[in-house]
Amino acid sequence: MSVAPEEPEVLDRRLDAAALDRRLDAVWQTPRGLWAALATVDHKIIGRRYIATAFVFLALGGLLAVAMRLQLARPEARVMSADRYNQVFTMHGANMMFLFAVPVMEAMAVYLVPLMVGTRNIAFPRLNAFSYWMYVAGGIVLWGAFVFDMGPDIGWFAYVPLSGPQYAPGKRADIWAQMITFTEVSALAVAVELVVTIFKQRAPGMSLDRIPLFVWSMLVTSFLIIIAMPAIMVASTSLILDRLIGTHFFNPAEGGDVLLWQHLFWFFGHPEVYIIFLPAVGMVSTLVVTFSRRPVFGYLGLVLAVISTGILAFGLWVHHMFVTGLPRLGESFFTGSSMAIAIPSGVQIFCWLATLWSGRPVLKVPLLFVYAFLFTFVMGGMTGVMVASVPFDTQVHDTYFVVAHFHYVLVGGAVFPLMGAVYYWFPKITGRLMSERVGRWVAGLVFVGFNLTFFPMHLLGLAGMPRRVYTYPAEMQWGSVNLFISLSALVLASGFLLFFWDAFRSLRHGIPAGDNPWDAPTLEWATSSPPPSYNFARLPVVSSAYPLWDERDALSVATGLRPDRREVLVSSVADARPEARESSPRNSIWPLWTAIATSIMLVWSIFTPWAVVWGSIPIATALIGWFWPKGVPEDDA
Amino acid sequence: MNERIVLDVSHLTLHGKSSASVTWWGTFAFMLLEGTGFALLIAVYLYLESLASEWPLGAPPPDLGPGSVLTAVLIASLVPNYLIARWAEQENLHKVRIGIVIMTVLGIVPVVLRFYEFPALHISWDSNAYGSILWALLGLHLTHLVTDLGDTVVLAILMFTRHGANKRRLGDIQDNALYWNFVVATWLPIYVCIYWVPRL
Is the pTM of this model over 0.80? Predict the structure, then answer.
């Protein structure tokens, strides 16, 4: 047996800095042109696209919210029909959860995690490209259907029997179910990439206790995705089967069960909240450290809090089903577990406060968003403890109280930190800073606008206004509060508008940032802004959790890698001891073909089950093209 | 910023094996993901059973024949599967080529047997929820049999080309063997569910 003989190697240690940059760039860069743009597997380019696309969906979902507020601003309004309103609130929820919140958090990680752990590309970069195309296709399917008046109208959690074959004829519910498949495939792919990147591609010396907290959060989030999202895929696939080929999973007349849907949905749906929230927690920890100018208080406590939140997340789902008549003992258990989640959340809040208290906080825009987060999230957490109690939940279930509660935790808990994170990492991604002055206005308008919009919804809910009604009679006397909310929503929307404007303007006219404008301690700031295609000319070696603070004179790096192929270091899981110089795949157009083939099969399968059979052939062909060895230096072993 | 070279990694291998390889970890991540899917379907089966007044619902228990033969074949396939992983580890291309042909055959046989299993259920997917979950369990596992077979066939062809003599491809053989173990392991609880739970 002959294994390909190893050629005499060219190693980076013989090259000076300029020559090394030139060699690495030749191997790693994405050339200009459309074909190269479609074939790229650079995590930074894909991450940028992912982030931009997610914010497009945020804007579209925001427009739907404005449309709903127009309709609800006064009683008996006729801005849109009941049917259109059903589509609009379903689209708003589905879009925000599946096309914005989860993807944007993963997108930030796709860009940042490889830089923060000191490697040159994400693990499985072609899967990453595939994931992005699947995500875009899912978005096009959902929004395309909406444009043609085929948008789902069954609420973002698509309860049966409303979404079943009997009550939802046509293809609207199938569009919802298949959009789930698209977005879950893409989310699961990124989750696998992140787990492996974080486990195996950390810089030498980055042992578990030196991993940046955002990276820890993304690790736990990725595991949540891997374990929670199969539940929604099982659910949505069963729903399509019930609708298309007459299975009876959710049909009580033939031994099925409608509550089975709710169990499956919320076994995914509750962890989903933490899939969105935990990355935000990591962002907050990052911002708090940089702007407090000190290491975080309680690193171990914060990591354990994130992990325990992740575990507890799977023991809460039934609290969404308190009014379905489950056994009392079950309800008590889930009340207990729901309240227990306040403990790790509390630990985190106290660690952040202690870090800020004992540091020298610099009040830049990202930190303003952290303050907005702390206030708003604690409010949402407290109403969360309230609805965890069965008698209270029974009163406010399906009212605007719940709408207020989850917007406080999701917008306050995730979107505010995300906006802070955008202000923080924008200079790394683009090379330019966003405006500090405009940013203060954005933070103010969004914070004030949000609270004025959503706080009164608590009161509306207590007054009995149900969610998902397209209008209400004047006699209910909800009109003035609703008008106030709608006007406040304009303040909130103007804040977001200003945010988008600032981002666009800063792309060209922002102040050049330099490598590390905030004097931050983690590895992404050790390279240029924006980073070169290969991230680091020499891979960093780490001896503390805050390498850029603890080694201010020079960055410790490794040498001895080949510059003539895409090479990264693989290291051991616990103590990040280098194990191999592994290759990283080159650009390839095949992930795009695979995504197109998969999209055709998934959309086709809404209409006939045979699509799964015939549609699999092009997918298999594309996958073979993807994996077939091309005889490049990356195949060397 | 300035750099200080503190580590030389030139002595490291150009391709990590097993736990030093990213594909090994990726395979495990996908096994966790798909294993969760299987576990959930089994949970759905048991949930529906707990609600039903009789089980199986409106049908006799499935015939034991085809499913049991398939189970025996899958368990037997673990032996050559173990051997091919070891031969790949030893970089013995000749034996790997023999092994991958055997594994291709052992991938085709269960797919054929599966099509005898469906009629042995004595119920259609659209008869009732019991039929639906049975077909879903068999169907989901069938997709795993088929995708792993596809993977095995492609690897088999690869082994007879110039690309076969490469540690990286032999690593693929090991990862494929690892995944086959998973396909067999997930079948066992499904087999118990479909064929023995109705007989309890």
Answer: yes
